[in-house]
Model the fold of this input.
Amino acid sequence: MKLIRFLPVLLVFIFISGCRENESKSNSSDDEKNRRKIELINAEDLEEIINNRNGKTLLINVWATWCKPCIEEFPHLVKIAGDYKNRNFEFLSLNVDFGKKADSLVADFMEKQNNPDFPVYIVTEKSTEKVIELLNKNWDGAIPATFIYDNEARQKSFILGSQDYGFFKKNIDTVLNMSL
Amino acid sequence: MLYKIGSILIMFIAVALISYNTLFSREAATKIKKVENFSLKDVNGKVHSLSDYKDSKGIVLMFIATQCPVSNAYNSRMVELYNEYSKKNIAVIGINSNKQESIEEIKNHSAENGFKFPVLKDVNNVIADKFQAGHTPEIFVLNSNYEVLYHGRIDDSRDESEVEKRDLAAALNEILSGKPVSNPETKAFGCTIKRVNS
Done:
């Protein structure tokens, strides 16, 4: 008898709980939708991007979420990418995180950076040495490292170590002016 | 007059070229082929000199770090390497040149990871500069004349389960067989060595 008296309350409770669960499922699927999909890249595809200039200067920044100096300079590069968006300029972010969680680590980091509007790729492990050689034969693989190519795919700048907005701007402007 | 203008123009071009190189080129220095004997202290204060290992069939110097995830991904592989090759008369030595990693930290890190090989503290990155070592982990293998026989990575994957090429082991096996190292230079991504002037 008591059970029958409490049945409507129980049904309402189950209904609300169910709604909440659906609501949270819907939120998490929104999160998944907003979550950036990080693509993998190998040396051959990277070479194609470098060579396919279409009259644009290209900056490639090599970084990892485990690299503190990379993380320090990243916001400067986000600002650079935004400020040069409407110029003859392309920005490419090349991540070298490793392991099975690499893509989620990168996606989380990009989310914290408000998902800036530039391509981000993770270098495939087996392409590591080829990518290093492709970007600069004198580079030993230490990161962060940044490379600037002119509009004819000639490398004009090889920057080792963490830098700031002003330094990148100076280098990009010089390459852009040379490309005019 | 024309001669003067020409000289000024040449000087201007020369200055411009120098500025261009300064602005654009921060390239790594040329590869080192041979080093002189040097001494460093390990985490217990014991002095180690290269000459102490002159009778070894090879000297493996590993620039490593306590805080670098790439270097740390290789901790167990470095222990295995020591276990496998120290009994074949190959000396295995770690060097820590990072300015922010203290002797105490290195000592704890070695104990936690079961390093049986000595880890030497390179104060003011003097030895990293001599070797032009740029990142961790970075390996140099020397012969008894301190000539560099191999330089580069331990293997081809930071993820142990993905390893296909054990480059360092291959080089050591060739050295032990008296053969020249067929692939003396390899590359991998790593953490920049934090130097005193950086």
Q: What stands out?
A: The mean pLDDT of chain A is 86. Chain A has two domains: 1-34, 38-178. DSSP finds six helices and seven strands in chain A.
